[in-house]
């Protein structure tokens, strides 16, 4: 599984590690994938990057995770990468609307792709990832399927200042437009997992008539699952989620969770890296006119969950 | 119950009363039990923080300790498939060792507690992220942990176990702080370390002892928190929890200068903090105002306490002058 | 000649208590008025009225021919009233000139408002010369001794061209020679027409410098003494309303064998010097010397606060290794420290908890404190020491200085003392309580406890000790037996003129 030996840490901390990376960087060009926060989602993405790296061994490909999910931290990482003169950066920008200047600086010095979260106003070469509004619409469809006769729904997410949260909500609202499902509120938890669960508990306590809970971020859905089970309201309260946390999939398999909308982070990592290699070799034919390569989402429900669980186990094994 | 605790209890009742008036569901059994659970989770390590604050120190590292001990705990259970009593023991011992380390750095090397534990905050968080390669650790595909899950997150007679554990810890710590020799030394050292040393007390051992206990309670809290969330994301798990603990201790009457505070106060402080978070959800106040509500009430509480304290002091002064002058 | 300052029927009532009750006095230019009275007699309230800090409830203040119901701080300062406090109010991160001219610094550079350090030094230097100071305006206050800081305080008062200077226990931290110099300075100030109010518990100084003495008791004027009537006996009678019996009580029996023997002891403050000293059971050894002569360093080394760097200590023949105070405490060697608020007591804790603090495990079983036993022990000590407090649960910080000192004593007396080191045991304590402390020390000695008493109060050293040991620059410069006691002999040893005066 994904853990490192703590005994190896002093060595990693030592100069040796730093020197070898630097030596490699001098011979090979480096492509970096900067994510927004640490999550299993990105571990799967890392598998895609690894696969691309196996196919293109003349590149040094790395994934960088900021310590804090803040735009400032991400900016620092990007500045350091530019100082190291990396050839290309794929990034999941935390605050795309206000990072245009930073992104354009990257674009002027290296190849810039966006992934997972787009920054259409920047000079990025291409966006590879999910269309979050479309993903929201998919979730909206699942919500309608869970509540054919309508009802009250509550959404849960980390923060609403993240674009993917806003876009998913927008997609859900578009899909539910004119229907009989009413979104009561959106509760945020500032990425505090314990608060994510208490938000659900408090919602269940406050609304005896709530019918549907939706988790927009990867960790929200398992916390909904736990809180609903803890309150003994499984079945009475439906759950629709996003992403493929282990507990989420278990919930789908048990039938407590209706379905979950999963993205394909493996493809994010793989296609971004391969795309950057192509771009650096002046092969730009793969970029469509609208500069967006949309990786479609999948719906995981009871029918395909066991097969998907197997895939995930394989992907996450031996990390 | 001292005046300070009484005041805090009054504040609790007022805030609870207002919330219940606005939405009676606040007093529903489900909600109260949910809150009891969270009070248990946050109270245990707040007591540890309180003990450290009473010595005049502070522990900023607890949140990061949760992340590091949390990933190690899950790793031991899920990947090493260690028997759960052993894994539990390892985490508790590691918590104690970390606390002792802080204590020794503070007492032997005379480093400032703020600096020592700030470095702990950074180091433990970093190690946790490196250890997991920045991935979330969870019980996702784990085997049979039913006994431990029941112990840490189950309920008996409807009461959540974390709350029961808090009560046990609080009673034990109450005896320790308010009735034992060690507790008396803790106050003496916090109020006047020099005078305590002049009385032949091994002040270093007393201070290190407080950090040791704080570390042990952080280890215990780790287990409870891990079973609450079922997964640990090393970069965000426990972020800011040290500040909740400090806030609870300060609300409960601990002075950051040391020498003041009580277990009952700290527990009441924790209760107030949890009520504040709960009422944001129960009253449907926008989540974004969560921190603002918490900060405002703490500020008001501290101001009220300060003002009452000043009036009490003025009264005491008048009284002591009244006594002192004719006496001589 | 009209008085510079007149108080007429000043009263001050706090809820439930009359702190001042119709006090009238007058102060003329060029005179030193000695103000005496026990702690709580109303001296400090009276001074606060003069400083404008506390408004009087009744009476009239006449200053420079103007009459006031009450003074404000600004009015008091404008009228030339300055204070030199017992607790020094200096910024030790600034230099001497910066302190003396604080808030009135000469400026240069126009709108930049830079401090003109040269002009400041020029203003301050003559003041320092006048006071005979051995430091410059540039010296950092942190480097000054307490006596030197006291001079800075006085220079501060002079810099404001004060016409009335009120000195509150100015010598409590000074050594004998420093006190003598201060008194000379005061004499010069008087000659130049400054009026002085001199508050002190040290009656010898009052005799030396006061032109007139006024005594307060229970907020009222207890009486006044003209120059020719000023004497110890008269002042004590005014203060406590009765005669004080002779200070010295001889020991009940000659000192016993054993006790504390120190040889070749090296303290961290004086690594070059070795100290040999003997304290026998049943005797009171006075330890005199200038401040900084190594007396407190010796006590701190013996008690393990700053563990000794060399030499040997034996107690009743057994070697005693002191690495921390707890080693000394375990052996029955106790210290009653100089600064009881900082080192002796936990001020925020009740009397009872302070008394049992050093011996708490004795009152505990299985680690839990038996609060009944604790209370009984504390009440026992409170009774035998006659601590004036409504009960043992009273917070120690609210007690008077003398009673606080008794609590510190009670802490040690509840255990099994063999040797007690007293460092300035009666500093800031009023005459009545002083007598009680001396009686206690003698009673302890008669029970077989060896006592070392560090003191800068000459009357105390000569009046209480069975034997006087004098230190100078970290070493013992001589020992005096009772029949050789005299202020002169002690002083000569203290300033290092040993030789014929020493006899061991």
Automatic annotation (TrEMBL), chain A:
Coiled-coil parts of chain: none
Gene3D superfamilies assigned: 3.40.50.2300
Signal peptide: 1-25
Domain of life: Bacteria
Keyword Signal set for record: yes
Domain Periplasmic binding protein: 33-281
Subcellular location: Periplasm
Keywords, in A-Z order: Signal
Family per similarity comment: Belongs to the bacterial solute-binding protein 2 family.
Name of this protein: Sugar-binding protein
UniProtKB/TrEMBL annotation, chain B:
Subcellular localization: Cell membrane
UniProt topology in membrane: Multi-pass membrane protein
Coiled coil, from the record: none
Membrane-spanning ranges: 36-55, 62-80, 86-107, 114-132, 152-177, 205-228, 291-309
Keywords recorded for this protein, A-Z: Cell membrane, Membrane, Transmembrane, Transmembrane helix
Protein name: ABC transporter permease
Record InterPro entries: ABC_transp_permease
Top-level taxon of origin: Bacteria
Automatic annotation (TrEMBL), chain C:
Residues annotated as domain ABC transporter: 5-243, 244-498
Alphabetized InterPro entries for the sequence: AAA+_ATPase (IPR003593), ABC_carbohydrate_import_ATPase (IPR050107), ABC_transporter-like_ATP-bd (IPR003439), ABC_transporter-like_CS (IPR017871), P-loop_NTPase (IPR027417)
Keywords attached to this entry: ATP-binding, Cell membrane, Membrane, Nucleotide-binding, Repeat, Sugar transport, Translocase, Transport
A GO MF term: ATP binding
Presence of the UniProt keyword Repeat in the record: yes
UniProt superkingdom: Bacteria
Record keyword Repeat present: yes
Xref: PROSITE patterns: ABC_TRANSPORTER_1 (PS00211), ABC_TRANSPORTER_2 (PS50893)
Protein name (Swiss-Prot/TrEMBL): Sugar ABC transporter ATP-binding protein
């Amino acid at each position: 599984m994904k853990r490192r030996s703590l005994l190896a840490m002093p060595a990693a901390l030592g100069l040796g590690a730093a020197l070898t990376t630097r030596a490699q960087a001098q011979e090979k060009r480096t492509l970096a994938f900067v994510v927004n926060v640490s999550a299993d989602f990105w571990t799967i993405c890392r598998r895609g990057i690894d696969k691309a790296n196996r196919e293109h061994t003349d590149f040094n490909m790395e994934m960088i995770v900021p310590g804090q999910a803040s735009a400032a931290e991400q900016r620092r990482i990007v500045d350091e990468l530019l100082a190291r003169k990396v050839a290309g950066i794929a990034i999941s920008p935390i605050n795309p609307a206000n990072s245009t200047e930073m992104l354009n600086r990257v674009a002027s010095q290296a190849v810039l792709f966006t992934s997972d979260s787009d920054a259409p106003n920047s000079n990025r070469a291409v966006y590879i990832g999910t269309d979050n509004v479309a993903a929201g619409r998919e979730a909206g469809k699942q919500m309608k399927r869970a509540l054919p006769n309508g009802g009250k729904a509550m959404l849960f997410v980390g923060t609403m200042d993240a674009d993917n949260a806003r876009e998913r909500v927008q997609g859900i609202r578009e899909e539910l437009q004119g229907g009989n499902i009413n979104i009561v509120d959106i509760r945020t938890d500032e990425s505090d997992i314990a608060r994510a669960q208490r938000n659900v508990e408090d919602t269940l306590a406050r609304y005896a008539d709530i019918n549907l809970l939706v988790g927009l971020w990867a960790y929200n859905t398992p916390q909904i699952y736990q809180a609903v089970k803890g309150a003994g309201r499984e079945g009475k309260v439906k759950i629709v989620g996003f992403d493929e946390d282990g507990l989420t999939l278990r919930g789908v398999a048990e039938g407590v969770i209706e379905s979950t909308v999963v993205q394909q982070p493996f493809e994010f990592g793989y296609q971004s890296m391969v795309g950057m290699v192509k771009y650096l070799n002046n092969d730009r034919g793969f970029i469509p006119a609208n500069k967006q390569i949309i990786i479609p989402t999948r719906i995981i429900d009871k029918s395909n969950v066991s097969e998907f669980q197997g895939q995930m186990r394989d992907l996450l094994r031996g990390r | 119950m001292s005046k300070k605790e009484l005041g805090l209890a009054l504040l609790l009742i007022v805030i609870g009363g207002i919330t219940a008036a606005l939405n009676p569901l606040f007093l529903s059994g489900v909600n109260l039990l949910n809150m009891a659970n969270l009070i248990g989770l946050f109270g245990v390590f707040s007591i540890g923080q309180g003990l450290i604050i009473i010595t005049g120190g502070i522990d900023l590292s607890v949140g990061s300790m949760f992340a590091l001990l949390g990933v190690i705990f899950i790793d031991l259970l899920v990947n090493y498939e260690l028997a759960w009593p052993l894994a539990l023991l390892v985490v508790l011992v590691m918590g104690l060792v970390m606390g002792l380390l802080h204590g020794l750095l503070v007492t032997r090397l005379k480093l400032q507690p703020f600096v020592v534990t700030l470095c702990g905050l950074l180091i433990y968080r970093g190690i946790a992220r490196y250890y997991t390669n920045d991935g979330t650790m969870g019980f996702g595909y784990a085997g049979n942990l039913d006994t431990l899950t029941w112990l840490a997150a189950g309920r008996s007679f409807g009461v959540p176990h974390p709350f029961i554990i808090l009560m046990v810890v609080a009673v034990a710590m109450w005896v320790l702080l308010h009735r034992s020799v060690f507790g008396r030394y803790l106050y003496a050292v916090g109020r006047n370390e020099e005078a305590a040393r002049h009385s032949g007390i091994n002040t270093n051992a007393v201070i290190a002892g407080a950090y040791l206990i704080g570390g042990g309670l952080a280890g215990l809290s780790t287990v409870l928190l891990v079973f609450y969330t079922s997964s640990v994301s090393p970069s965000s798990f426990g972020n800011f929890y040290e500040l909740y603990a400090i806030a609870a201790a300060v609300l409960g009457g601990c002075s950051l200068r040391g020498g003041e505070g009580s277990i009952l106060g700290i527990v009441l402080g924790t209760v107030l903090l949890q009520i504040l978070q709960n009422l944001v959800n129960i009253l449907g106040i926008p989540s974004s105002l969560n921190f603002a509500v918490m900060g405002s009430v703490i500020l008001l509480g501290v101001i009220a306490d300060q003002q009452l304290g000043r009036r009490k002091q003025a009264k005491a002064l008048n009284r002591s002058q009244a006594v002192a002058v004719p006496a001589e | 000649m009209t008085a510079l300052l007149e108080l007429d029927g000043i009263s001050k009532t706090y809820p439930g208590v009359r702190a001042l009750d119709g006090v009238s006095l007058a102060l003329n230019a060029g005179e030193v008025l000695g103000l005496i009275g026990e702690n709580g007699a109303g001296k400090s309230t009276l001074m606060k009225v003069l400083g404008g800090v506390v408004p009087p409830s009744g009476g009239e203040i006449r200053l420079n021919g103007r009459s006031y119901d009450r003074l404000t701080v600004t009015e008091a300062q404008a009228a030339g009233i300055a204070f030199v406090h017992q607790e020094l109010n200096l910024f030790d991160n600034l230099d001497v000139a910066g302190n003396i001219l604080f808030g009135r610094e000469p400026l240069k550079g126009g709108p930049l408002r830079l401090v003109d350090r040269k002009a400041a030094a020029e203003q301050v230097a003559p003041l320092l010369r006048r006071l005979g100071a051995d430091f410059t305006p540039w010296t950092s206050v942190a480097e000054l001794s307490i006596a030197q800081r006291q001079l800075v305080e006085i220079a501060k008062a002079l810099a404001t061209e004060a016409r009335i200077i009120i000195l509150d226990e100015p010598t409590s931290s000074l050594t004998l020679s420093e006190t003598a110099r201060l008194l000379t300075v005061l004499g010069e100030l008087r000659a130049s027409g400054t009026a002085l109010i001199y508050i002190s518990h040290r009656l010898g100084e009052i005799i030396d410098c006061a032109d007139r003495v006024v005594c307060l008791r229970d907020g009222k004027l207890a009486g006044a003494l003209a120059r020719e009537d000023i004497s110890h006996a008269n002042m004590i009678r005014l203060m406590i309303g009765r005669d004080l019996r002779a200070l010295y009580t001889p020991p009940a029996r000659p000192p016993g064998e054993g006790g504390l023997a120190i040889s070749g002891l090296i303290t961290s403050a004086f690594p070059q010097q070795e100290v040999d000293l003997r304290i026998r059971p049943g005797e009171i050894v006075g330890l005199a010397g200038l401040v900084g002569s190594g007396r407190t360093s010796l006590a701190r080394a013996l008690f393990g606060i700053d563990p000794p760097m060399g030499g040997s200590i034996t107690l009743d023949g057994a070697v005693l290794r002191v690495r921390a105070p707890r080693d000394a405490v375990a052996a029955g060697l106790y210290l009653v420290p100089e600064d009881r608020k900082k080192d002796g007591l936990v001020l925020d804790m009740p009397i009872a908890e302070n008394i049992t603090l050093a011996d708490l495990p004795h009152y505990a079983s299985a680690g839990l404190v038996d609060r009944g036993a604790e209370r009984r022990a504390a009440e026992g000590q409170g009774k035998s020491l006659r601590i004036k407090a409504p009960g043992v649960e009273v917070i120690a910080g609210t007690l008077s200085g003398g009673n606080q000192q008794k609590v510190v004593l009670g802490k040690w007396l509840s255990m099994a003392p063999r040797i007690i080191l007293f460092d300035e045991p009666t500093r800031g304590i009023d005459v009545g309580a002083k007598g009680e402390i001396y009686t206690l020390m003698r009673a302890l000695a008669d029970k077989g406890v060896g006592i070392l008493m560090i003191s800068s109060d000459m009357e105390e050293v000569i009046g209480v000790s069975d034997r006087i040991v004098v230190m100078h620059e970290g070493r013992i410069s001589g020992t005096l037996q009772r029949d050789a006691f005299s202020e002169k002999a002690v002083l000569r040893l203290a300033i290092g003129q040993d030789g014929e005066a020493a006899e061991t």
